[in-house]
Amino acid sequence: MGYSNSLLATFFFLCLELYVINGQPLVPAMFIFGDSVVDAGNNNYIYTIVKANFRPYGRDFVHHKPTGRFCNGKLAADFTAENIGFTSYPPAYLSEEANGKNLLIGANFASGASGYYETTAKLYHAIPLSQQLEHFKDYQRKLEGIAGKTNASSIISGGLCLVSSGSSDFIQNYYINPLLYKVYTPDQFSDILIESFSAFVQKLYGLGVRKIGVSTLPPLGCLPATITVFGSDSNECVDKINGDAVSFNNKLNATSQSLVNKLSGLNLVVLDIYQPLHDLVTKPSENGFVEARRACCGTGLLETSILCNKKSIGTCANASEYVFWDGFHPTEAANKILADDLLSSGISLIS
């Protein structure tokens, strides 16, 4: 079965390349919602400490300049855009680039430190999903003005919507917030998040979106910062926290299937990021990496956002050897592998 799946994926990528060579993206647009894993720079324009618009962020990106992406280079969403034929990336909605014909290929509404739990974003003055949705409504109005109502409707229904959320809810809120972990078990908290996810998808559906790829939680217990804070002086992944992620992902799969059964014409695919990233962390050398415990930036044990800066001592010279760029986020090299895995698992969204 694994061999036949590999052949299918290889055949698909060959067909995809032939299609893309003709200069036609496989979908008319991309709409991106969620947290820092997919934020392309929206946090640059709001009052928050959760930013990545300074070096060394972006040092390996186009023109070697920081853009607000929480990475040394491209995000998995950027590679996805390239893989399906786009020659530029959906602009961060709050940026100056998000205007006129640039909006025809979609927009990125994500915000670092946002989550399914509304309060998570508020804690860090990030943009909650509810506000990201309002921005999307505003985007739709602008799109109608540019392309006309009928064309705008086709772009929305045919466009690929990516949702990445939930990690900040656990790592940056639940596990460190006694107002949550003393009141809810991880299982109860994940139920709250899943309810929010379900409501969010239904609102997107009500606005005309029909193709949605939602990523699972990654192996949260394997993030360098998580091991540093919760690992009890161990260099190993924190099994309990990984277990919470697996439990959430199981609920995400079940709820997504329920939504597909409920909403006519909805193509909702759960994109597994847990296993591919877990494989990179536990078998780095097999995937071309040298270091999977420590991140590239600074000591590699904790730094992220403002703690990862041009004065951070110890930042590595070659990020492509590392799975993680900072304490929470993968490197461009890891994102490329993750994006290819996500694309092959989400074939039905673009075929």
SSE diagram, text form:
Blueprint: H1 2-21, E1 30-34, H2 76-83, E2 106-108, H3 118-123, H4 129-147, H5 149-158, E3 160-164, H6 167-171, H7 178-181, H8 186-206, E4 211-215, H9 224-230, H10 239-262, E5 267-271, H11 274-282, H12 332-345, H13 347-350
Parallel strand pairs: 1-2, 1-3, 3-4, 4-5
Helix pairs in contact: 2-12, 4-5, 8-10
Describe it.
InterPro entries: GDSL (IPR001087), GDSL_lipolytic_enzyme (IPR050592), Lipase_GDSL_AS (IPR008265), SGNH_hydro_sf (IPR036514), SGNH_plant_lipase-like (IPR035669). GO terms for molecular function: lipase activity. This is GDSL esterase/lipase. The chain is of the alpha/beta class and about 350 residues long. The protein has a single domain (about 1-225, about 240-280, about 330-350), classed as SGNH hydrolase (Rossmann fold). The protein is about 45% helix and about 5% strand. Helix 2 links the parallel strand 1 (about 30-35) and strand 2. Mean pLDDT is about 95; it is low at about 1-10.
